[in-house]
Amino acid sequence: MARTYDVLTMxxxxxxxxxxxxxxxxxxxxxxxxxxxxCPTNISVAAQRLGSRTALLTAVGIDQVGDFILNFCxxxxxxxRYSPRKAGHRSSAxxxxxxxxxxxxxxxxxxxxxxxxxxxxxxxxxxxxxxQYLLVSGTGFCKEPSRSATLFACEYAQRHGTTVVxxxxxxxxxxxxxxxxxxxxxxxxxxVDIVLGTEDEINAMMMGEDNTVTLTHSQVSDARxxxxxxxxxxxxxxxxxxxxxxxxxxxxxxxxxxxxxGIDRIDAAGFPVEVYNILGAGDAYAGGVIHGLxxxxxxxxxxxxxxxxxxxxxxxxxxxxxxxxxxxxEHFIGMHGDL
Amino acid sequence: MARTYDVLTMxxxxxxxxxxxxxxxxxxxxxxxxxxxxCPTNISVAAQRLGSRTALLTAVGIDQVGDFILNFCxxxxxxxRYSPRKAGHRSSAxxxxxxxxxxxxxxxxxxxxxxxxxxxxxxxxxxxxxxQYLLVSGTGFCKEPSRSATLFACEYAQRHGTTVVxxxxxxxxxxxxxxxxxxxxxxxxxxVDIVLGTEDEINAMMMGEDNTVTLTHSQVSDARxxxxxxxxxxxxxxxxxxxxxxxxxxxxxxxxxxxxxGIDRIDAAGFPVEVYNILGAGDAYAGGVIHGLxxxxxxxxxxxxxxxxxxxxxxxxxxxxxxxxxxxxEHFIGMHGDL
Amino acid sequence: MARTYDVLTMxxxxxxxxxxxxxxxxxxxxxxxxxxxxCPTNISVAAQRLGSRTALLTAVGIDQVGDFILNFCxxxxxxxRYSPRKAGHRSSAxxxxxxxxxxxxxxxxxxxxxxxxxxxxxxxxxxxxxxQYLLVSGTGFCKEPSRSATLFACEYAQRHGTTVVxxxxxxxxxxxxxxxxxxxxxxxxxxVDIVLGTEDEINAMMMGEDNTVTLTHSQVSDARxxxxxxxxxxxxxxxxxxxxxxxxxxxxxxxxxxxxxGIDRIDAAGFPVEVYNILGAGDAYAGGVIHGLxxxxxxxxxxxxxxxxxxxxxxxxxxxxxxxxxxxxEHFIGMHGDL
Amino acid sequence: MARTYDVLTMxxxxxxxxxxxxxxxxxxxxxxxxxxxxCPTNISVAAQRLGSRTALLTAVGIDQVGDFILNFCxxxxxxxRYSPRKAGHRSSAxxxxxxxxxxxxxxxxxxxxxxxxxxxxxxxxxxxxxxQYLLVSGTGFCKEPSRSATLFACEYAQRHGTTVVxxxxxxxxxxxxxxxxxxxxxxxxxxVDIVLGTEDEINAMMMGEDNTVTLTHSQVSDARxxxxxxxxxxxxxxxxxxxxxxxxxxxxxxxxxxxxxGIDRIDAAGFPVEVYNILGAGDAYAGGVIHGLxxxxxxxxxxxxxxxxxxxxxxxxxxxxxxxxxxxxEHFIGMHGDL
Lengths: 339, 339, 339, 339
What we know:
- The structure is a homotetramer.
- By secondary structure, chain A is α/β, with parallel strands linked by helices.
- Chain A has helices spanning 39-50, 64-76, 120-124, 146-159, 178-188, 199-205, 229-237, 281-294, 299-314, 326-336; strands at residues 5-10, 14-19, 31-37, 54-57, 93-96, 106-109, 131-137, 163-167, 194-198, 213-214, 224-225, 243-247, 253-259, 262-268.
- The radius of gyration of chain A is 18 Å and the shape is globular.
- The relative contact order of chain A is 0.15.
- The interface between A and D is medium-sized, with 26 and 26 residues.
- β3 (31-37) of chain C pairs antiparallel with β3 of chain D.
């Protein structure tokens, strides 16, 4: 029997306040545009705009910002009724400066936030078994009760034939110890089918006593993580997942697929664009990939759709609000080549 | 010997994100202007712009928002070097919708915030004894360690000949129980010389088993508090303070002064203006009053300056960023009467 | 109309585990006797055994230790039905070594404890207005919600004609900053009629930027606090209380009473005994004083009863379980003099 | 090269206060014996007394109870220098009533406790790679930072050739949700070589949406957990561990060993004794098993030693303090059969 949803995304959501004064130092910003964000929420919007049927399992507070987030998602056509309000907890917020090409100073408002309060009961009330894919993000594992609820959701999904996709979503300042990220994510992989991440994120999953995270820029742009990404990818694929989508920025992406004969590597070329704001591009990619897979596309074609989505969003100001529709994709592709 | 500062203000600070879409429902807001706010911070800016020499004792996190707040205040000429950074704590933020004349939906981001981490050691490192006035706000008493640090500051000020001004600053959602606000503020009054507040705030200070706070609108506009404000004022003046400035909105303000012969009541008429955003008007009033008192003005003239400052800010979009200079005041007065 | 209770005591309670191996170093203790303790709970037992009618407003967890505490008090004849159970919080415990004459190493188990969760609603549900005296302890002010609830109780008592007695109960490790103890207690005094304390405790109430607490022994015996106790006493009596009982150990106690003509000083001689365990002796004293006052005795006679109670308990192993009855007092007095 | 330690045990420790009034209702207890306890600490003592060389990685507070715990272990010959003191955290305590044969009412004092503060840095400072076995307990996974530190320790051990033993140690009241226990433990199994547990504990590890924990007695005796234990065992052995020791109470124990040909089941008969206090018997068993394995014994003989240790301790009053030496074992065996 057909499932009601192509994908259920689980995890954080936020009001994203992005500087309108592009290029200005943070202290000189005069106004911020108000968008919706948060990795799983962005991915939900991305997939929905491409034509997927999506549901969102996040949590917000009993506050105006919660209204703002859920209202936006509902207007997008996403099913939000499984996302609870958490009394005594605040909807998340992010305040962001934009200094292209590589400086995006970021302040998270996630102390006592609502989305980390997702529980196993919230998971059991959600339609995981009625979705083709479950998308979770690494940040969902940073604190309890979200950590065990997200792990429970992955197990539950696999038991009910729902494919589990993990967006690594490495946010070092959300963890008490960056090494805890590595060891926690590794313990999660047994319940994951497909992994998506940048090279830094894939290396971050391998962090142990030897690796070093360069966190200097973690609140300014992406965290840099040293390591041999090729070794890391094969290690990940030995721990549960059968597929890994390696996001390579301007170079596009590479899909690593476990087969009986070994690991297939499929390269999907990127689209050349000028970077305006990298935030959200990875989530756009994930939305494209999931939409493609949910509709039976090949690994290569799904990855190319992801690349196109990411390329479009990297030229835009915000995250969720700028996800492309399939019409946008067709127009973009027409200019830049083909899927 | 002359003191270096006219006033040291102690307590909260924030980035204030105010809807640019005036009149829009919160969920429809497209962008927010970025200002600085927080009762004692606003008052510092107000007094400084009028010509007072001010210092600020707030605390911010090690984050970009903290830079934003301190940079603004420093640029205003306020001494900010006594305001510490609190590792592991976040600079406060406020997100606000603006639906004049009376709906200002507000979401505070103050979980684990930096300014509530002010300690007795921070107080001892600040130049209280070198300021003519110490201004504290009621919210500074809501949680430890700020609560005992603020109380300590008041005692210390009185012992060193610094006049203590309390802005009641009733923010019910910052307290675990609204009745705790009343009983705590009453226990503070013995260390206070001058009180400033609206009628609702003065009633809130009297809250016990009988009073009722109408909190329905507390996150949308001011909280309504029932009670007999005239009885409340005289009660307050029997508990330590010698002067109370009663803010009466469009009706201006009334100064209640304890004298050997009883309590003098001095009315200072308001200035008729159209309300645009009430947030910050009370802080502008406080800045005007303190500036007047610090410069030897009469109660009536100080209250009229306060009224003028409040009237100007009530027609503006934000708080700190819109405080008038003495030139603005002279221009405004020229149109509306006289101090 | 007569009131149902002579005294309602409010605040902490605990299971007190006291070394049976008297004189042994803590690490060599083999077993602990199980008693009930906690300043206000001890005082309730002391007064009840002397013949007063008492009620107890403490809180315990939903655990066996809570059963132990309440069962003991109920068996003593104390009304315990106003003492709530606090789900998710633990009944307090104390583990104590006994090395007479002056070493009593102490470990408090009060993290997340139930009795600090007393609320204003718990106060309003208790029979304060139906008691002649309300006894509160300084530790009740260390953390919220107990802090504002205890302050509320004091105000409520005074408004309803119930005399408020404060046992200073200085426990420095229950405060985030010892100076916060001083400034908080000073803000409480306006709602207090009678104060009881040792010289160190009276000095502790005066702590500000100058005083120094010698906390070296705070977990081993009483905290030492420097200061001029005579100045401190007169300061306290200028801040609200009309009477102060100064506990002077072997020297007995001195009652300081505000009169129109100045402060009367009444000395009540001590009873010479050998110290076995000082813990609880002060609470026995308080129970004796309150019993005397509640039955119309003179200051001197009430203080002498307190001295006798304290002297008896100082020769005993524990606190609440060893409080003397009036028969014990008469027997003791017969050997040592007269009240 | 030979390793310095036969086993490093990691996790909780406590002062165990066990009723001396055996058979009395909790509220009637007059005194408690003071022992040392906590699953990994008990196991360390058990193995050390049998002749193993052990080190302990627990944490205690800066308090007398911490001295008590470490002093006992040091006197036993256990290496305790890797166990840090955690400022601001309290050494754990347990208060226990004893009503044989099956009622052991238990109150944990573990709010803000020191041993849950073990960090990855503490792990890296410990001699895991210099021990033949690492023993961890399920409770070590209940909260951060202990959770990720314990997981990190398991990974680190396996990478350095140290065999990882997990004592399931199911303590439902230490978890925010009993189902979080199941899903967390399952995610840990990939880093575990040998599992030890009772049938209820093995079922608890399988808890998901279907299983039901009967927690009614969880603070009174063992928690009852429904489920098909045989299915559970084989599931566990499919998730990483190669060996599972099933503790069967009076019936002895059964060892399940993964072999190329399937799972071998080896029964080790129990020793008939009268139950006095079940607490600690399982830890004695673990100590015996690990001692046997570390000295090259067969599965059967190690399990029989475990059975003998457990049988001896079940007739005793406490945990760590009553662990048998090899001489005790020989004497016991002489009366009851053979290993």
